[in-house]
């Protein structure tokens, strides 16, 4: 194989990837002094990403909802607070930076999830542990090398030989009746007999 038989094709492909798992603790202060925590869940996660050199910066936010009792367990409420975050995901290039136009796509592997929610020692705040995991991919131009066959060639196809023969006359139709089980005059039968 010589270099004359090689061609370079410019195409788009994933040229870099990065993944980051983050654990954080958020401190929330509800309007009422909590007596106990009845539940905690996280919803409404949104994010956007931008590439800076060999890093992808992901900016996002989510809502933490804490269902809690107060006034000596005589009442319950749900306290909601929006939390913003910024994660820097390190990108790992397989072949080095392309230097051209690159697009960044971020996929959420683990949505923000509450792993623990407790009342702090002061008794007036919540301490909520949150974990999340993100995957960043960079799509850019890259080159692939293909071999070009120098001569024309015929592809090899495996198939069964098929032959047919026909006669000049119309025949008596017996072959047709034999294949399809029909009898002469079937089409003239009254449809009410079916």
Report on this model:
The protein is mainly beta. The chain has a domain at 15-147. 4% of the residues lie in helices and 59% in strands. It is built from one helix and seven strands, in the order βββββββα. The chain has one helix at residues 174-180; strands at 6-28, 34-52, 55-70, 75-90, 92-93, 103-119, 126-147. The strands form two sheets. A four-stranded antiparallel β-sheet has the order 5-1-7-6, with no helix packed on it. A hairpin with a 2-residue loop joins strand 2 and strand 3 (55-70). The longest helix is centred in the C-terminal third of the chain and has 7 residues, at 174-180. It is elongated and about 95 Å long. The protein starts with 5 loop residues before the first strand and ends in a 14-residue tail after the last helix. Residues 172-194 have a biased composition (Basic and acidic residues). It holds the Pfam family CotE. This is Spore coat protein E. Keywords: Capsid protein, Virion. Residues 156-194 are annotated as: Disordered.
């Amino acid at each position: 194989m010589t270099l004359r038989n090689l061609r370079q094709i410019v195409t788009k492909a994933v040229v870099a990837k990065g993944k980051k798992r983050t654990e954080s603790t958020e401190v929330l202060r509800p309007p009422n002094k909590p007596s106990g925590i009845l539940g905690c869940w996280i919803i409404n996660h949104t994010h956007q990403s931008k590439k800076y050199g060999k890093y992808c910066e992901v900016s996002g936010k989510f809502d933490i909802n804490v269902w809690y009792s107060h006034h000596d367990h005589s009442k319950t409420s749900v306290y909601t607070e929006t939390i913003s975050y910024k994660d820097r995901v390190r990108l790992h290039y397989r072949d080095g930076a392309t230097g051209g136009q690159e697009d960044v796509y971020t996929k959420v592997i683990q949505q923000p999830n509450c792993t623990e929610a407790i009342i702090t020692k002061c008794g007036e705040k919540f301490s909520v542990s949150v974990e999340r995991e993100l995957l960043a991919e960079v799509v850019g131009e890259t080159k692939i090398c293909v071999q070009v066959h120098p001569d024309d060639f015929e592809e090899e196809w495996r198939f069964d030989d098929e032959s047919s023969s026909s006669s000049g006359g119309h025949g008596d139709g017996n072959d047709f009746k034999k294949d399809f089980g029909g009898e002469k005059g079937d089409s003239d039968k009254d449809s009410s007999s079916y």
